[in-house]
Amino acid sequence: GWLWDLAKVSYKWNGNFVDAFFGQTKDKDKNRLSLFRKHVYEGAGIYAHFKTNTKGAFEPYVIYKNGLYDDADGNGENTEKSTTYGFRAYDKDLQSFNYDITYAKADGTIKTKDYDAYGYVVKVGYQLKNVRWKPNIVIGQVFASGDSNTADNTIKTFRTPFGGTDGSLYGRMDIMKWSNLVENVVELHLALQYNMKLKLSYHDFSKDKAEDVWSYYKVGANTHSTELGTEYDVEYKWQYSKALQFQAIYAYFNAGDAIKEAAIATPTKVQSNNAQRLFLQLDYKF
Q: Using one digit for the tens of pLDDT, what is the confidence trace for 185-217?
């Protein structure tokens, strides 16, 4: 959802790399060159990748974000200076164990308030390599801090540095955002054949702080419950040939009490609580 004027420098060696970037996000007028007009944010960052073995790596990063608008010229007041830093560490096969860990800490100021928030992802799995279909069982938690007192001088609600709400960390339904969120997840990965994979997963979503909103939902502050709901996913992938791949995903989301309370409070904004999605894809390379 972002349009960038951006420069990136990348240095790579022996499977390692260091990326450095600087850029500015522009307004949504796609028909006009934005090089010297209406930039909303500027950002700079470094992301590095250092191999620990053939299937593992350690990835430190730091991101700086600066809001460029301080008036209401189509974008509202937007004075922000924040830094998000942390790391990702993973290993896909450590004596049959596997793990994927990400940590992010955010500091700075947003408008007139201090910004102090954090988030993390921890997933640990074990693969039974000598069992049929080589099942890999993964358990984990995704966490992003919320704010129990939005009236004080510190913002504790974690927010992603430059947007983005899709991706495997947030659920295939694409209705979650990494903000005021606790997700407990259990996954089962199966290799049905050498070219056929199946993934079954269960997600339990809740708010970190009941007093804070669920950011993507925009409503639901001060609900009695923190429970957002549960999600069930089935993902099937078939690599039919080198050029042809089929993929199917079905997901069902069962809304929790926090969403139901918000729906009662704002009936004009909520059409339904539960949701489901079916995704079919054919990928042909030539």
A: 999 999 999 899 999 999 999 999 988 887 656
Contact status, residue 135 vs residue 127, Cβ threshold 8 Å: yes
What lies within 8 Å, CB to CB, of 217 at 6+ separation is 259, 262
What is the rounded (10 degree) CA torsion for 39, 27, 176, 87? -30
Q: Using DSSP, state whether 264 is helix, strand or coil.
A: helix
In the numeric block, the tokens 């199917």 are attached to 248
Token code pair at residue 277: 């999605």
Kindly report whether the global pTM for this prediction surpasses the value 0.90: no
Give the phi and the psi of residue 99 in degrees, each rounded to 5: -150, 160
Among 221, 277, 230, 283, which Cα is nearest to 255's? 230
Looking at residue 73, its amino acid is D
At 168 the pLDDT is: 46
